[in-house]
Amino acid sequence: MSVNWFRFSSPVSFYPLAGAWSYWFAILAALLAGAGLVVGLVIAPTDATQGDAYRIIFIHVPAAWMAMFIYLVMAGWSALALGFNTRLSAMMAQALAPTGALMAAIALWTGAFWGRPTWGTYWAWDARMTSTLILLFLYLGVIALRSAIEDPRRADRACAVLALVGAVNVPIIYFSVQWWNTLHQGSSISMTAAPKMAMTMFADILIMTAAAWCYTISVVLARVQAIIVERERGASWLESLIDLRPKGTH
Amino acid sequence: MAQFLAMGGYAWYVWMAYGAAALVIAIEIVAVRARRHRALDQLRMSAEASPPPPSMLRPRSAR
User: Fold this and answer.
1) What is the pTM of this model?
2) Number of residue pairs across A and B with CB atoms under 8 Å?
3) Is A142 exposed, middle or buried, given 0-12, 13-18 or 19+ CB atoms closer than 10 A?
4) SS3 content of chain A, % helix, strand, coil (to 5)
5) Domain coordinates in residue numbering, chain B
6) Which residue of B16, B38, B56 is in closest CB contact with A113?
7) A4 falls within a domain
8) B23 CB near a chain A CB, below 8 Å?
9) Range of A53's domain?
10) Under an 8 A CB cutoff, do A102 and B24 touch?
11) ipTM for the assembly
12) A7 lies in a domain?
């Protein structure tokens, strides 16, 4: 069986596919988030030392992971866009930036509201917090840079370079708790050791991470559809979308 | 229920974290849907303003 993957690198064939995937991943995200919230807020037992404040972990950790991961995916699409000069890769990178910024903002915000009851402060210039704040600024920088350049193809290249240069920040965030001995604790979950927490809590972090994954895929694909229509305006294939989606039904 | 909402005395922190996350996610969903609507509306308007040549009105299979 041979699949011609390059077929999907053109916006024409990708557009309907993105719509279908966006729909199904939205349903999956809603189901996972519903289950994850019930387990995280109701079923998971109260922590012996932190009380119920620890329940913030179920959004904090998945959001922080997603913020870092989305950045790497965005840098990957940017590299493809630079290397192969493909329009769709640049559009994917463009569509990922706002959701990445959102995840970074959620990670910082929930961290503040977890830090206050447990560490006694909403914010400190700790290595991990600072590098995550830089991550948020990198996302905002990519978005601002795009809106500052009128020619979309030039904006693609400029944003791709910025995204790739900023990627060095991701390992800095990841290893910050080992490299600098500041406020943020080390990771509770490691690839190489058993998790240092109750099984229910660990399982729910994974459920909420899966929900965040599905949400990201769904919302980014919906955004890339909008970007395709915005940027390919005038392309003859787009006219067929109008027939598919008459007024008021989309 | 009241006990659940109290979150063992950490209601302010827990609900500020969860509430803000839910709010920004809801805003993002609405914004993305609106952006898609807007893009398709503009496409429709520009198509109505300048109808495509007859060759493009034929069904896909005929092309």
Assistant:
1) 0.86
2) 97
3) buried
4) 80, 0, 20
5) 1-44
6) B16
7) no
8) no
9) 15-244
10) yes
11) 0.85
12) no
